[in-house]
Fold this protein.
Amino acid sequence: MDKKRREFLKIAGISTLAGLGAPAVVDRFVSGSSPLMARAAMEVETGGHGGSEKEAAGRHEKEEVKSGTRWGMVIDIKKFIDDPAMGDECVKACHSVHNVPSFSRKKDEIKWIWKTGYANAFTEHSHYYKNEEIEKNDVLVLCNHCDSPPCVRACPTKATFRNKDGIVAMDYHRCIGCRFCMAACPYGARSFNWLDPREGLDMNKLNREFPTRMRGVVEKCNFCVDLLSRGKQPACVEATGNTKAMVFGNLNDPNSEIRQVLKENYTIQRKPSLGTLPSVFFII
Ligand code: SF4
Ligand code: SF4
Ligand code: SF4
């Protein structure tokens, strides 16, 4: 191991390296010498966005203050079982609005919202939940826009961050493709562009109002922050029509529809024991 690499490992000290295949990640960092990389290393060294558990707990306390907006979503699993095509429509709507590329090889796949088995989605609930109808069907999943997001803490460049409305967003221009965030996300909600995403798009159907991404960056669901800013609902929610299979709203507003739905229904979150505090809830 050369000196440069040893120094980087000392600075970073990030456990996520193990999950990613450390040599590949380290090579990616040390082979270049851009100011962005230098800043990333410096921010990690100074605890810029990693920080100790105590600091994390402090941040968490702050985040629990119920003021302002915290966008959230409720997904009614039974309604998607009644109409299996509706889930596909949601994926189609999201991926076409956001120019999400389509690649045939699983390893190249980019997904913002997707269907997965119940037991895979709810690893902490599947053993005691008794409704076989639900257990044998797929569930629609997406980024949970966690209130305490480990992906944000893992990112050395602030390319992924939590905005003032609780949306965990991406700045593609700051992303250096280290994939620490992917290792940190316990939900597999992030995809890496191994290929040029434009090669997986039908350029005739491109949404010119939304940017395409570039090879080497991570992407994921952005809770349709662009549509919200124009007073619209997320594209996947729109795709469910008036079925109320998906309800989107402000979790901090006690008078919002989403709070009413949460009050009236039994809901679960994915992997609650991890303390990530997902903003996506599921009616089962
Ligand atoms: S689901 Fe994953 S990517 Fe989304 S906020 Fe939570 S940890 Fe981050
Ligand atoms: S890959 Fe993830 S952790 Fe690395 S810079 Fe990009 S957003 Fe941040
Ligand atoms: S909220 Fe928006 S970005 Fe997220 S899955 Fe739904 S349509 Fe896609």
